[in-house]
Write a structure and sequence with these properties.
The protein is built from 10 helices and 10 strands. It is an alpha/beta fold. The strands form 2 sheets. Strands 1-2-10-7-8-9 form a 6-stranded mixed β-sheet, sandwiched between helices.
Length: 321
Amino acid sequence: MIHAIPHLSLGSFPTPVHRLLNLERALGFTSLWIKRDDLSGPLGGGNKVRKLEYLFAEAKHDDAPLPTLFTIGPTGSNHVRATAVYGKAAGFRVACLLFKQPPTEYSELNYRTICEHAAQVHEVQRMSTMLTRYAYERMKGFLGIGTEHYFIAAGGSSPLGSVGYVKAVLELKSQIEADILPEPRFIFVPVGTCGTMAGLTVGVRLAGLRSQVVGVRVSDWLLANSWAVSRMVRRILRRIGAPDAGHVHPRPVELWHRDFGKGYAIPTEAGRQAVVMMAEHEGIVLENTYTGKTLAGLIHYVKARGCERDPVLFWHTYGGM
């Protein structure tokens, strides 16, 4: 199913998995592991590289001229940064529509990188305005008006893009079978636009793993919720041609909401502490919008359930330039 779907090689896979021994001891855990998707690509890592491999392949229509890639996100978006950088390297023109997010050191770096690599950068003040403008551009494309665009959803979170994370679980299963790590009881990942969590959920099911994917919500509830993840799971199953896609009853979606804080991209104290702990104990860089909150959520979730002795996997999705 998955192997028949075209993809354009962009990343460096498999990404490493290793034990977080120092952080594990500091937290009182027994078996804490990390999947290093921060090392997923030569032009910057993160979880978007796996998605773009499939999206870029679809955008390349045989020998036809390459369309302009058009995508959206906040001004500090990891997704827009990756699309601009990898898209330019692959020969695409990239246009993006951004809404303002609270400035942080990492988001400002992403914004500068986007401006350096994208051919067109449009900015608005609010997410609602961005979504309205995006719908308008999609309608123009449907009517054949203006430049030919290949539209990439926020976060690269489409059924096709999420296939990258179905395949990622098969990669993880190979690492488990090679005794690099035990099968995790929990796999923790940030949930912004739901595509990564949905892909992992489908992958776990298809790989026959018993692991529970736990999403730590980092964006507004209207975008990141159990219904949205479940809907994406069904759409991915249909996209890959799973024979029972219409009759799938996956495990209940497990979302952790308590480390979201006051809003998207607004740091929390627990998230800041998690960023510092990972840097001090393991020398690994996190940030405050996605991965810091996710590590904080992992710590709180595991301790709340008394599961400190179980194997736990932190899927590291951030990758700066």
